[in-house]
Amino acid sequence: MKPLEGINDFVIRFATVNGSGSASANNLFAKAVFRMGVPVSPKNIFPSNIQGLPTWYEVRVNEQGHVGRRGGVDLVVAVNGQTLRQDYDGLMPGGYFVYDASKPLDETFQRDDVVAIGIPMTTMCVASFDNAKMRPLLKNIIYVGALAALLDMEIEVLIESLRIQFRKNPKLAEPNIQALELGHGYAREHFPDTCKLTVRRRDQVGDAIMMDGNSAAALGALYAGATVTGWYPITPSTSIIEAFGHYVEQFRIEPDSGRIKAAIVQAEDELAAIGIVIGASWNGARAFTATSGPGISLMAEFLGLAYFAEIPAVLIDVQRAGPSTGMPTRTQQSDLLACAYASHGDTKHPLLFPSDPKECFEMTAAAFDLAERLQTPVIVMSDLDLGMNDHCCPPLTWDSQRRYDRGKVLDAAQLDALTTQWGRYRDIDGDGICYRTYPGTHPAKGVYFTRGTSRDEYSAYTEDSGSYVRNMERLALKWETAKTLLPPARVKIASPETRLGVVFYGSTAPAAYEAIENLHGRGIALNSLRLRAFPFQQEVWDFIQAHELVFVIEQNRDSQMRTLLINEGGLAPQQLIPITSYDGLPVASRFLTQALERALAERGIVPPRPAPGQGGVQ
Amino acid sequence: MTFFRPTFRHPELPPNAAGYSRRDYEGGISTLCAGCGHDSIGNAIIQACFELALPPHRIVKMSGIGCSSKSPAYFLGRAHGFNAVHGRMPAIATGANMANRDLIYLGVSGDGDTASIGMGQFVHAVRRSLNMLYIVMNNGCYGLTKGQYSATADKGSKGKKGGVNPLESIDLCELAIQLGAGFVARGFSGDKQQLVPLIKAGLSHTGMSFIDVISPCVTFNNNPESTKSYHWVREHSEATNTFDFVPLRQTIITEYADDTIQDVALHDGSVVHLHKHRDAPDITDRRQAIDSLEDHKAQGVILTGVLYVNPDSTDTHEILHTSERPLGSLTEADLCPGSAALAAINSAHR
Fold first, then answer.
1. What CATH architecture is A211-393?
2. Beta carbons of B99 and A437 less than 8 Å apart
3. What fold is seen in the domain A6-198?
4. B-chain residues within 8 Å CB-CB of A263?
5. Which of residues 263-322 of B touch A (CB under 8 A)?
6. Do residues B81 and B180 touch, judged by C-beta distance below 8 A?
7. For chain A, what is the mean pLDDT?
8. pLDDT tens column, A94-105
9. In chain B, which among 170-199 make CB contacts under 8 A with chain A?
């Protein structure tokens, strides 16, 4: 079996133990590839655990710029005894197995289609470093050094990265650099020309950045002027609030007083978290919360109140694998229906679907304008893959001239200038959106009572059927207005003639685009539409109508987006073909390519084709 | 239920210090049952706000769900009100308070709203020392759903239909003291003389002020065997002490002739002026306050009045060290770091 070959096009997996400090070593490697000008996409596949369980870090290197997960592993750095066998068996044929040779490999490791590369990491580490506490961390750096040699990387880039990492503590940089060189030297001496996978310097990343979606969303909230957050810790959304807190410390301290221009309130549960957001938004602050599926379930009651009483709220749902507690550290797009129609009664909420950190930033910022303009909750639908993994994406931009759209809010002077009676729920503009006031605005005018019960145009309690229906119809009209304000979908036409279309959204996009490109290479043209918002706009229906078959790709079992499209558009179900991937790992382009091919073959559109070989690990 | 409120006011009724008449503090017509204790509490709130000369539009009224939570519609008609979902008033109040620290927050809840469905929110609002007055209109039962026992109904208390409550009751005042509320009191809707100054003191205190007001449900829980009936409370209550509330910059001359006097200064400079019996507990001592409640309970007596005051209490904004300006009033210039800062953030991510 010929060993795998490739320049700037392969997948490496680090198999380590959670809590062993491997994350920063793995990150060092990915960052070095990026700094050599090659697009890279790291995925942390970690357990719901602080210490001891297996964790993997998968790095895709691809100079074409495909940053979705590919599927299959070409080289594994296997330093976790618990998963050694699994990591070995899961390698692609022709793959490379890098292991800690301090202990001999069990004789049952006998694959003849795998190149085994033993580096005595522990032995080297014990021989070179006296500080027992630091040894496990330095062992991680040794394998990074070895890997750099095997892949023929520029070791200087890694050394420089270490210097940057430890710039506040240069003393720590030295042993790390030493460990790096140890591993590098050993691999170069014992395994020259063994590995045919190579990282070559390119100029393919331009001004791109590597950022996780949660940090980007936090920046979106910061830039949009959020001042209040109510939140409850839940993986994978917690790091949004942590990042927001970090940026608040950096940018929101009043110089004279040292006081903070934000209130970050850790609530007792998600019920309170969303209540805090609603209370603050009602009272004139921009407020948000970040949560995940279980939190959305708890927030449902309050979301109904905010919908019906028409109070802005911004939520970022970093979705994880459900149902129930599900797989809390694995990714999915499975909160779609729960969010779209959250709460009892006739409720629906605008959703935004970012597909990279730049959109996490932009859509979170936009969510505040939309929520205040529409006076309703807006949910940014991120997920664990997008939120917690670093992604290579264009730099974030902000127009310093941009002004916040605080929506229809009357101040004291405007109240005084009114010539007709003001009604909190009176639609005078015909767009379904009425004018509100903040408490304390005027001594005698603009006061109203906010409630979740039915009321008339002047916010007086009523159980009159006519008033109730008028109000519900107005809310439906406001929903139509929302469609004119939401970001449009992105359409890519591969061929004006093709009758085949693909629809997807969020973090599925990179792998979906790559699968479409793969199929294009095989002569199959697929037009695509990337959804960016709910409610759906006319162009979505136009796209679907223009195609005979539309594949809907998403990361949940029940094809929730397909359901939503059929329901909202009154579409014939057979026109929309579900393509799903929901094992908790970010969707892989190889899987999607095969799934699309299979679906096309089943319908006789393309001849069937044997699936190419693929490794066993996910 | 009252359908008519006379609009006539004596022309010489004096306005308060801020120039408002008492009518400026009134609200809509109550739809609660005639004789409901809650309406008396509403009137006491009106009286207290009038006497304190608070600008009515600077008060924010918040409530949950239930008979008590409907009552904010019946007082302070010039104040914005927020009738939240069941048991969730404290979260709404927290958010509202975070957005604008300059307004006065008055939360009204019931025993079901606070001691059952909203228990989690109540204890945590207390823990975070939210700057508000939290009033529970406590009738020991669920009125709107026709008389089920609530969690504050006393064990052994008999309802109108003759059933005995077999479960232990929750003493919200004890909980509030334990969890750090800075001002804790218990009142009785039938005792306006005591209730009005309690509300005034609660409104003047910085941080969490909690008043549990026993408020008999005339329809479902006012039978003689109920420990939340007018009759029972009148027969079985004892005031901690008589006291005057002295707002900032006012002096009063006391007419009581008690053994000792204890002054407790509140944050805003006003004073709670207590006339105590010699062996009465020190109301600034948390442990004595709880002991006193338990001692009276053991004797079958409901202790009313100011139960506990922490003159050094703080509030959520001080704990979080937030800006002294209302957060909701801050603009782009205050909040947005701008494009240059973003360029630097981008650079740090390469």
1. 3-Layer(aba) Sandwich (3.40)
2. no
3. Pyruvate-ferredoxin Oxidoreductase; domain 3 (3.40.920)
4. 98, 316-317, 320, 322, 327
5. 316-317, 320-322
6. no
7. 96
8. 999 999 999 999
9. none
The runs of H, that is alpha helices, within A94-169 are: 121-128, 135-150, 155-165
Q: How far apart are the CA of A244 and the nearest CA of chain B, in angstroms?
A: 13
Q: Which positions 318-337 of B are in contact with A (Cβ < 8 Å)?
A: 320-324, 326-332, 334-337
Is-same-fold flag (A6-198; A211-393)? no
Poorest-pLDDT segment among A48-57, A139-148, A571-580, B235-244 = B235-244
Give the integer Cα–Cα distance in Å for A328 and A545. Answer: 38
In the predicted model, what is the mean pLDDT of chain B? 89
| Nearest-CA distance B91 → chain A (Å) | 5
Q: Which residues of chain B make contact with A224, given a CB cutoff of 8 A?
A: 336
Helix A155-165 and helix A135-150: axis angle, to 10°? 150
- Tell me how far apart the alpha carbons of residues A81 and A100 are, in angstroms, rounded to a whole number: 9
Return the percent helix, strand and coil in chain A, to nearest 5.
Answer: 40, 20, 40
Is B94 in Cβ contact with A271 (below 8 Å)?
A: no
Residue A304 Cα, gap to closest chain B Cα (Å): 10
Q: Which of B55, B324, B337 sits opposite A222 (nearest CB)?
A: B337
* CB within 8 Å: A449 and B72: yes
Q: Which domains occur in chain B, in start order?
A: 22-320 (3.40.50.970)
The C-alpha of B164 sits at a distance from chain A's nearest C-alpha, in angstroms, of 33
Both ends of chain B: CA-CA distance in Å?
70
Q: Tell me the per-residue pLDDT of A293-343, one tens digit each, with 9 for 90 and over.
A: 999 999 999 999 999 999 999 999 999 999 999 999 999 999 999 999 999
pTM, rounded to two decimals: 0.95
Interface residue of B57, B104, B113 to substitute, partner A, most A CBs within 10 Å: B57
For residue A254, the chain B residues in CB contact (below 8 A) are: 323
Q: Evaluate if residue B8 carries a pLDDT over 80.
A: no
| Residue B23, Cβ density class (10 Å: 0-12 exposed, 13-18 middle, ≥19 buried) | middle
Tens-digit pLDDT profile for residues B225-261? 888 898 888 888 887 766 767 665 443 333 444 556 6
Give the other-Cβ count within 10 Å of A111's Cβ: 15
pLDDT attached to residue B247: 62
Least confident segment among A148-157, B155-164, B284-293: B155-164
Q: For the residues A534-538, what does the mean pLDDT come to?
A: 98
Q: Which residue of A has its CA nearest to B92?
A: A279
- Decide if domain A490-602 falls under CATH 3.40.980.10: no
Sheet harboring B260-265: ordered strands across?
B242-246, B271-276, B260-265
Q: Where are the domains of chain A?
A: 6-198, 211-393, 412-485, 490-602
**A342: helix, strand or coil:** coil
Judged against a pLDDT cut of 90, whether residue A416 lies above it is answered with: yes
